[in-house]
Amino acid sequence: MSHSLTRAAVRSLGAAAVVLPALLAAGAPALAGGVSGPAFYVDHQLYRTVATPTDLSGTGAPAQSWDTIYSFGAVQRSVATAAPGDPGYNGGRWQVHAVSLTSTYAAALAAGDRDGDGVLDAADEVQAAIAAGTLVDGGVVRYFVCTVNPVPHGQG
């Protein structure tokens, strides 16, 4: 290798040694995952997640390789269709569906809250409210991976 190529390579490595740590430090908050507080319901049980910085959109994975999370935005906590131990659970691979109210939250509860606890906290309740027309499923808005763990009783 000639001296000019050697010097260019050394300068590039030196620049990378200075810039790379700065980029990693700046991106650390965006890449940080962590255990959430209570995040969503599955079959009337509250779960928390361990977030990972993933985006699996565009992978072309078949529909059956995902479980669904119905996201209500600020209306209430999300509701998922499966959890660890459930038949067909896909290991924390999620497709998020945005759901919205067609009128009031009270109307959605009247249509879907089958156990009368004042919240839609199971997939069958969300699906009943959708079938009644009080919720609309806006379709998939995100694909990602995160693990889920039940929230201990009294911490929800």
TrEMBL record:
Protein name as annotated: EF-hand domain-containing protein
Organism per entry: Terrabacter carboxydivorans
Entry keyword set: Signal
Key word Signal present: yes
Region forming the signal peptide: 1-32
Lineage, uppermost ranks: Bacteria, Bacillati, Actinomycetota, Actinomycetes, Micrococcales
Top-level taxonomic group: Bacteria
